[in-house]
Amino acid sequence: MSSPxxxxxxxxxxxxxxxxxxxxxxxxxxxxxxxATQITEAIPLQHINTTLSPYTELGLxxxxxxxxxxxxKIVGMYIAHEADVKGLGRIGERILAKVGGFGxxxxxxxxxxxxxxxxxxxxxSGLFQDxxxxxxxxx
Length: 139
Known about the structure:
Blueprint: E1 7-8, H1 10-22, E2 28-34, E3 38-46, H2 54-70, E4 73-80, H3 89-99, E5 102-106, H4 108-112, E6 118-124, E7 127-133, E8 137-138
Parallel strand pairs: 1-3, 4-5
Antiparallel strand pairs: 2-3, 2-4, 5-6, 6-7, 7-8
């Protein structure tokens, strides 16, 4: 099975990184919007109380309405953990189960060191495959 290929706009790449950098001592979450292959927007969800709470539910609903108004859809999510958590963690897995698509983990430690900050977790048909994005994708 070949892996899906996504193209991120500059805005969709920069916003999650800036969101994580603005709140390095908090877990931050957000969503990616676009089409099946083109990711055009990123929307921050929250940087406090990141459990699947009424705030998260409301944020997901507002993001869905925003995306529908622009003729796009939620295609994935991102999370940056305040602590050294490997992968999406429980919160990220729960949000990803709600929105589907793919998940991106922003590594705050690598971000602070000026290195590639995205760890990508792709979900297709319930199977997960981990990737690290650091000067190109490698498995």
